[in-house]
């Protein structure tokens, strides 16, 4: 599967500091010191309705991670999946009468367009679940051979008790896990499971559902968590630098994925850090497909909203906070973009050497984008009020905003 074109990232003088982030697994801050190549995995969409502002907020946050690492002198190996076969996709296709493959391709294509418009740096490997089935089947077979998986009426389940580190990603107790499992795609009430939390690895073929030859597993399709594990292990290996995604992926998705990988390899941890973005609300509730309270990036673009303003609206909120999208949030971003563009359009400028330093320091401090925006606001205010005599200042600010924040002004 192909990704989307990469925007140009301007070079800046100097080099940024190491990135410190809040790690869900430890509950504290960790300073990441990757080698020459920083390895990042961010879970992608299930393409039955893309791309809403909640998606965009998450992927913009992890785009900042890439930009901080690039500015610190690292090469970035970024991998992302597309869950292009799963229950929500099949249900939407059945409801609309559309072929599930056509639906997945259309929404994935729209997602690419939105990521391009928002100037999100693309993954090196962009992998669909369907194309990854040849990677997934041997992993499930290995888990079964290690007595870490078992059959139940033709389905294959992972035994969470096989991983002594299970629970170390989310830090939740069994009762909380069971509630979230039921809410987020699990089946804790299914009779016959060894542990109610055990997740599905391979779903045996059902009438009317797509299925593939799984060898010793029989015909079926993969579970959700093993999909990402197969892709990450293939392209990044164990111990990669950051596993990222939305807040609601910490459990069960990232917890289960880590356990799959740790049992498969005998190594720990699966990822050095687990970083999760907050949820975006609209009309007082979490923005979600099930609730139907969605604001789509493509709809905003079709209404003539500058994608740079959409990105600024997302960056105005710290990535870990839960916040609400409103017309006022967007209006503030549109006004900010206009101020910045007016400021950099002047031929001479107020001194700007501190602007890249302040942006770098803010982003290195757990991706504090709001403080980074304030650094540019402060310069723009001085520039518009009094100006200066440095002909290189507007260009330096423009390049810093582009390179580090991904906003073209």
Notes on the structure:
- With 409 residues, the chain is α/β, with parallel strands linked by helices.
- It folds into two domains: 34-286, Rossmann fold (3-Layer(aba) Sandwich), CATH 3.40.50.620; 326-405, Four Helix Bundle (Hemerythrin (Met), subunit A) (Up-down Bundle).
- Helix content is 42%, strand content 15%.
- It has 13 helices and 15 strands.
- It has helices at 53-71, 87-96, 100-117, 133-145, 174-183, 224-235, 250-265, 297-302, 307-315, 327-344, 354-364, 369-385, 393-405; strands at residues 19-23, 28-32, 37-42, 75-82, 125-128, 149-152, 155-158, 200-204, 212-213, 219-222, 242-246, 274-277, 280-282, 285-286, 323-324.
- The strands form four sheets. A five-stranded parallel sheet has the order 5-4-3-11-12, with helices on both faces. The protein has a five-stranded antiparallel sheet with strand order 6-7-8-10-9. The protein has a three-stranded mixed sheet with strand order 14-13-15, covered by helices on one side.
- Strand 1 (19-23) and strand 2 (28-32) form a beta hairpin.
- Helix 6 packs across helix 7 (250-265), helix 10 crosses helix 12 (369-385) and helix 11 packs parallel to helix 13 (393-405).
- The relative contact order is 0.15.
- The model has no long low-confidence stretch (mean pLDDT 96).
Structural key phrases:
15% strand; 5-stranded parallel beta sheet; 13 helices; alpha/beta; Rossmann fold; 2 domains; 5-stranded antiparallel beta sheet; 15 strands; Four Helix Bundle (Hemerythrin (Met), subunit A); globular; 409 residues
């Amino acid at each position: 599967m192909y990704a989307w074109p990469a925007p140009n990232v301007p070079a800046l003088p100097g080099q940024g500091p190491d990135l410190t982030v809040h790690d869900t697994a430890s509950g504290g801050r960790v300073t990441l010191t990757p080698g020459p190549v920083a390895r990042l995995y961010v879970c992608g969409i299930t393409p039955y309705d893309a791309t809403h502002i909640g998606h965009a907020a998450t992927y913009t946050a992890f785009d900042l991670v890439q930009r901080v690492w690039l500015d610190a002198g690292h090469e970035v190996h970024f991998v992302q999946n597309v869950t292009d076969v799963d229950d929500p996709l099949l249900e939407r296709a059945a409801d609309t009468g559309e072929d599930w493959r056509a639906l997945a391709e259309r929404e994935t294509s729209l997602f690419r367009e939105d990521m391009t418009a928002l100037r999100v740096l693309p993954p090196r490997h962009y992998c669909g679940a369907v194309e990854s089935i040849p990677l997934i089947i041997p992993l499930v077979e290995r888990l079964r051979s290690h007595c870490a998986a078992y059959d139940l009426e033709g389905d294959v389940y992972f035994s969470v008790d096989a991983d002594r580190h299970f629970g170390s990603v989310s830090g939740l107790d069994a009762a909380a896990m069971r509630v979230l499992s039921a809410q987020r795609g699990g089946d804790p009430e299914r009779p016959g499971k060894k542990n109610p939390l055990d997740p599905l690895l391979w779903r045996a073929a059902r009438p009317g559902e797509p299925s593939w030859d799984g060898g010793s597993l029989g015909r079926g399709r993969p579970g959700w968590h093993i999909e990402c594990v197969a892709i990450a292990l293939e392209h990044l290996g164990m111990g990669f630098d950051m596993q990222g995604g939305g807040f609601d992926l910490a459990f069960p998705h990232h917890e289960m994925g880590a356990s799959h990988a740790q049992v498969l390899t005998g190594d720990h941890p699966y990822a050095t850090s687990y970083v999760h973005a907050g949820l975006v609300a609209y009309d007082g509730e979490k923005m979600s497909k099930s609730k139907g309270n969605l604001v789509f990036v493509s709809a905003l673009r079709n209404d003539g909203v500058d994608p740079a303003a959409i990105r600024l609206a997302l960056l105005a909120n710290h990535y870990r906070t839960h916040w609400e999208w409103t017309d006022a949030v967007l209006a503030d971003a549109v006004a900010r973009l206009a101020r910045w563009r007016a400021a950099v359009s002047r031929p001479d400028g107020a001194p700007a050497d501190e602007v890249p330093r302040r942006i770098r320091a803010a982003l290195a401090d757990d991706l504090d984008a709001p403080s980074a925006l304030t650094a540019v606001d402060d310069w723009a205010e001085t520039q518009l009020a009094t100006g200066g005599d440095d002909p290189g200042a507007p260009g330096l600010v423009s390049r810093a905003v582009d390179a580090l924040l991904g906003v073209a002004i």
